[in-house]
Prior knowledge:
Layout: H1 2-26, H2 34-50, H3 56-70, H4 73-85, H5 89-118
Amino acid sequence: xxxxxxxxxxxxxxxxxxxxxxxxxxxxxxxxxxxxxxxxxxxxxxxxxxxxxxxxxxxxxxxxxxxxxxxxxxxxxxxxxxxxxxxxxxxxxxxxxxxxxxxxxxxxxxxxxxxxxxx
Length: 119
């Protein structure tokens, strides 16, 4: 049963990542990977909300499945490397720092909201 929950979440998360990434990136005329940044920070927020507040089954569905497919460390790494190789070292460094800071802030914010709401 657990693997079905993970697969179901991933079936939703993967296309959602792709569509969100393309939509966000199409609105920005810059080398900075705003689409990947947006899905990763959103995933961190959702995982923060889920931490300790929902059933193990919902954590498998939404945390492991949906967020696992929604967020993408490999694309983040590739895009950061690509920026550095293209000479956009400032964007490359900004991507690393902003992703780390915003991702952690989103996770902490999600956990704080979850604690406040579901206490």
